[in-house]
Amino acid sequence: MIIDVAQFIQEEQSHWKRLEKLLERMENDSALRLTLDEINELHYLYQRATSDLGKLLTFASEPEVRGYLEALVARAYGEIHQNSRKKGRFSFKQWWWRSFPQTFRKHIRAFWLSLAITMVGALFGAFALLLDPEAKEVLMPFPHLQDSPSERVAREEREEQPGSAHTSTFSAQLMTHNTRVALTTLALGFTWGIGTLIVLFYNGIILGAVVLDYVRDGQSIFLAGWLLPHGTIEIPAILMGGQAGLVLAHALIGWGTRDTLRMRLRKVGPDLMTMTFGIAILLVWAGLIESFLSQKHQPEIPYSLKIGFGLLELGLLIWFLAGFSKRSE
Amino acid sequence: MFDPTRQITIELAEGISFPLQLAGPMTRFLAWLIDLAVIMSMVTAVNLSLGLIGFLSADLADALKIVSFFLISTGYFIFMEWIWRGQTIGKRLLRLRVLDVDGFFLTFSQIAIRNLMRLIDMLPLFYLVGGIAMLANRRAQRLGDLAANTIVVRQRESKQPDLDQLGEFKFNSLRNYPHLEARLRQNTSPEETYLAFQALLRRNELEPAARIETFAVLAAHFRAKTEFPPDAVEGIADEQYLRNVVDVLFRPKTKKNKKC
After folding, report:
1. Cβ pair B113:A272 closer than 8 A
2. Strand, coil or helix: what is B20?
3. In this complex, is the C-beta atom of B102 within 8 Å of any C-beta atom belonging to chain A?
4. How far apart are CA B183 and CA A3, in angstroms?
5. For residue B12, what pLDDT is reported?
6. CB-based contact (8 Å) between A4 and chain B?
7. Does B156 touch chain A (CB under 8 A)?
8. How far is CA A182 from CA A77, A234, B208, in A?
9. What SS3 class is residue B24?
10. Searching chain B, which residue's CA lies closest to the CA of residue A171?
11. Residue A60 is nearest to which of B117, B190, B254, comparing CB atoms?
């Protein structure tokens, strides 16, 4: 028991102030690397403050010092204790070539489910348009898709693209819009996956209806030349957004595990972040391609070249995600 | 309704525990409004500077505006909370901080996830979904906080009591009886000490009559607690007596001895 609290405070104060200064430095600079001596000092000062708090709790002459010490210990506790091993310096190369594809493969079943739901939606969209051609306006609510495909192809092959003076702006719009769609698909995982499934299904409906509309009108080559260059990256990226949403939903529901909700969410957190940033990068690429390549048609760029480019991208994406890049190193 | 005294307690392996006071929806909303103003200012500044590029290529300037708006509006919270360990400008001004739900070190993935989930929390407008989630959750977490295992706490002032605010302590007759001083310190609870300290700090806020009455009650309370010999207390006004008591409870003996 402390007999003289005032003397105790006076003796300990310098240690608390030193700890406070160290914490301030750490809190104001996330890139700060403490020296070994400073780490030892931090640990010592934290233990000392904790022990002082324990002593004060048994006697505690006045609550302000107790409150001050509690706040100090709470801050130090947060700096010292971690829920996972702190990784070394971040390497973009390592993250892009290893972490991202590995994370994708780790949750591959969610990706297959995401793909399956989109395919079901696509079949539904195609079937609905087949049954009721009048439904085109509802199934594909985009002004540039309302004409007949043949008319659009004839017009776009004849004229210079009306938006060619705004290619960069269009590209930026695509990037940000698609990233937002992918992030929303992910975040909707919080609705136990229902929202994610609805978005995937709806995307599938649009895709299926568009494909059927062009194929039925004999414009398959134009369609492939228009969609493949950006679609081979954009569509998988949106599917990955769905995949991440389903991973989140799985963690929320907790099938097949005895972990608590908090533990489950802690486990998937880093994976969700990795997928999010990976998807964003893919969508930036897709936005650039869609704006600078996909919208340019024959005779400016031959369809065979565009289709070949799209297929090459798809092959590279599969090679990348399947982890062959790592094995070939 | 959100209980403003709501808190969670972190228990350490050492047997010590400390409370963390949770931030309520309204405080967090105000912090968000401040951050929104900061974001809008940043966007305006970037757009103005991009106006120069517009002379070279209007298309490129427009594209950069769209991308910078997206990056600033999405990345501001992530960037600030990462470099300031759980704080943005709004949170810092209102003394709020994002923490791990177990009080652990906040990781980058937690910061990224809680902020990406804003897309859901802000639906349908003004964070209605997030606000309802906070009211329904005992840790006052919005959906982003739930996904990232984070909480937002109100940081307490980590300032020690400043006795200098009470002015210079002159001769203290109670100091002549060290054994009674020790007894007084031992008999006094933290709440009683705090009450006496606050009464002295706020003396000027009281009406003269109320001040006399308040100090009379408090002095009588402390006189009864530990009885000092008549020569130590005779002729001392109630307020001065209370100052002496606070001096005894707070001031280190050594410091006082030097002064005497």
Report:
1. yes
2. strand
3. yes
4. 9
5. 77
6. yes
7. yes
8. 36, 10, 67
9. coil
10. B63
11. B190
Residues of B in contact with A274 (CB under 8 A): 109
Please say whether the beta carbons of B63 and A169 come within 8 A: yes
> What is the residue-level pLDDT of chain A in tens, covering all 329 positions?
555 666 777 788 899 999 999 988 887 777 778 889 999 999 999 999 988 888 776 654 556 677 788 888 888 888 887 655 555 677 899 999 999 999 999 999 999 999 999 999 999 999 999 998 888 888 877 777 777 888 878 877 776 555 556 778 888 888 888 888 899 999 999 899 999 999 999 999 999 999 999 999 888 999 999 899 999 999 999 999 999 999 999 999 988 888 999 899 989 999 999 999 999 999 999 988 988 887 777 777 888 999 999 999 999 999 999 987 655 54
pLDDT digits (tens, 9 = 90+) for A60-100: 455 667 778 888 888 888 888 765 555 567 789 999 999 99
| Distance from C-alpha of A170 to C-alpha of B141, rounded to nearest angstrom | 38
Contact assessment for residue B169 and residue B247, using Cβ atoms and an 8 Å cutoff: yes
Is residue A103 within 8 Å of residue A269, measured between CB atoms?
A: no
Residues with Cβ within 8 Å of A215's Cβ and at least 6 positions away in sequence, in order, are A223
pLDDT at A61: 53
ipTM: 0.78
Would an 8 Å CB–CB cutoff place B110 in contact with chain A? yes
> Is this structure's pTM higher than 0.90?
no
* Alpha-helix residue ranges (DSSP H) falling in A87-166: 92-94, 100-106, 108-131, 136-139, 149-158
Q: Which of B47, B109, B247 has the highest number of chain A CBs within 10 A, making it the mutation to test binding with A? A: B109
A58 touches chain B (CB under 8 A): no
Whether the CB-CB separation of A275 and A103 falls below 8 Å is answered with yes
For testing contact with chain A, the best of B12, B158, B185 (most A CBs within 10 A)? B158
CB of B259 within 8 Å of a chain A CB? The answer is no
Sheet containing B7-11, strands listed edge to edge, beginning at the edge strand earlier in sequence: B7-11, B17-22, B150-154, B96-100
Answer positive or negative: Cα dihedral of A131, A134, A135, A137: positive
DSSP assignment of A261-323 equals HHHHHHHHHHHHHHHHHHHHHHHHHHHHHIIIIIT--TTTS-HHHHHHHHHHHHHHHHHHHTT
